[in-house]
Amino acid sequence: MKLIARDIRKKMDGLPVLEGVSVELDEGEFVTIVGPSGCGKTTFFNVLIGLTSCDGGEIVYEGRKVENLRGLVAYMQQRDLLLPWRTLLRNVLLGPEIQGKLDDGVLSRARELLSFFRLDNFADMYPAQLSGGMKQRAALARTLMFGKELLLLDEPLSALDAITRRKLQSYLMALSERFGKSVLMITHDVEEALLLSDRIYVFSALPARVRRVIEVGMEKPRSIADKRFLELKEEILGELLEEVQNGS
Amino acid sequence: MDRRNFYPALILLVLIAVWEFLVRVFDVPFYILPPPSGIFQTFASNFSLLLRHTLVTLEEIVLGILLALALAFPLALVMFFRKSLERAFYPLLIASQAIPVFALAPLFVYWFGYSILSKVLMAALIVFFPITLNLLQGIRDADRDLVDLLWVAGATRWQILWKIRFPWALPFLFAGLKIGVSVSTIGAVIGEWVGAERGLGYLMLHANAQLRISLIFASILILSAIGLALFYGVELLERVFLPWKRRERKWEEKG
Ligand SMILES: Nc1ncnc2c1ncn2[C@@H]1O[C@H](COP(=O)(O)OP(=O)(O)O)[C@@H](O)[C@H]1O
Ligand SMILES: [Mg+2]
């Protein structure tokens, strides 16, 4: 197993937010977490990457128990978080730069990545000059350039409109299929989860538990019109609806 | 000329014309209030004198600004990294602003003499406050998510400071600098009034004693020009150092 998070517990201001969450991810897998908004998904990520402490549970990375995944993963949020004072190219180089690994090889890899994400013509532009979709693509390129095998993505496409989101889903697919990364992603888009994932964790309403684990097991690329796809989508939406109604 | 500057320039010209007109119509004596044309004449005939003293004052101001900058960076950093030191320094920093600077001028001259040092310190004291506070605020204000992004990637706090917090603080620093440099002339001139043998402040006192009012006006004019030039100089530096700000603005205008 690449990553095992076992029985993670967390209270915030006395309020339980994570009530024993366990998630597993194998080398090269694409795993997603869906759940009602405000149920604790981001909090779960924050515990994994060390931005908040947890009250119980353990994190095992590549067979070793670790405090958290700081320095071991590349992390990306809904906001593109590009540095406004840097051109796209220099934004993409941020990871190698803080790792002290800037050299010609890295530079040419950054340029290759930019052209894979169809941004080669914008390498010298500032983020403020680009559309939301382009910025998010640049953020994906930067996340890859951190050179980590495991990526944690927290609703990476949520800030985009539906059509742009559709277009960018193929890039997300490429993270595991082309670049061989292991991906753990939070999304609120059930279709997106079904299109991309090997496994889906459905979280309960606050406090979060794993309500259901779905091994999707369909060939990729998948079609949203496929019978099993539609069945699963209905099931998951039904469960989420139930959680939302129980939760409030 | 761009439209932004047109109306201020027009108003200024009108004011000067009215001034000239009133002085002539009411026949105000030259030693009470000289007309703009008289001041201009004084300017021309005392050019080298004015230039000499201007350079002295300018040197004091520029050195004062540089000194303030040199002190602001370490102090802002120390206050940022050590909360206890911030709690210790911050009230003092505020309190230092409650001291009227001109009350310190005699002391500075007493301690540091008629040399340039007392004037540089006066200018620095005035500029220091807005620069330091703005810098500290900018470093603190940096986007939490950006800081977290680097932290999660394993960056050291110096890397976070250098790659996120400093660039984030630059617009704040420039805002503070603009406030600082526009009032920097005050410190230098007060210092010169209290004790100096050169500089525009000294020249003004000298001219005052000799009832050469137009020379005082000429000095005031130069001091204002210095303040303005420093302000626009900082703005120019800002454009050079913050090219992305300009892009943002242009882009927003285009819509
Ligand atoms: N800084 C915080 N302090 C206290 N409570 C918080 C904080 N951040 C989030 N919460 C609470 O934790 C719960 C989970 O939030 P979050 O993990 O962001 O949800 P999700 O990402 O699933 O939408 C929310 O209901 C919120 O009220
Ligand atoms: Mg969230």
From TrEMBL, chain A:
Residues 3-230 form the ABC transporter domain. The keyword Transport applies. CDD domains: ABC_NrtD_SsuB_transporters. Keywords: ATP-binding, Nucleotide-binding, Transport. PROSITE patterns: ABC_TRANSPORTER_1, ABC_TRANSPORTER_2. It comes from the Bacteria. This is ABC transporter ATP-binding protein. SUPFAM superfamilies: P-loop containing nucleoside triphosphate hydrolases. The keyword Transmembrane helix does not apply. GO terms for molecular function: ATP binding; ATP hydrolysis activity. It comes from candidate division WOR-3 bacterium.
Automatic annotation (TrEMBL), chain B:
Its main location: membrane. Keywords: Cell membrane, Membrane, Transmembrane, Transmembrane helix, Transport. Residues 54-232 form the ABC transmembrane type-1 domain. It comes from candidate division WOR-3 bacterium. The chain crosses the membrane at residues 6-26, 61-81, 88-110, 116-136, 168-191, 211-237. Belongs to the binding-protein-dependent transport system permease family. Pfam families: BPD_transp_1 (PF00528). This is ABC transporter permease.
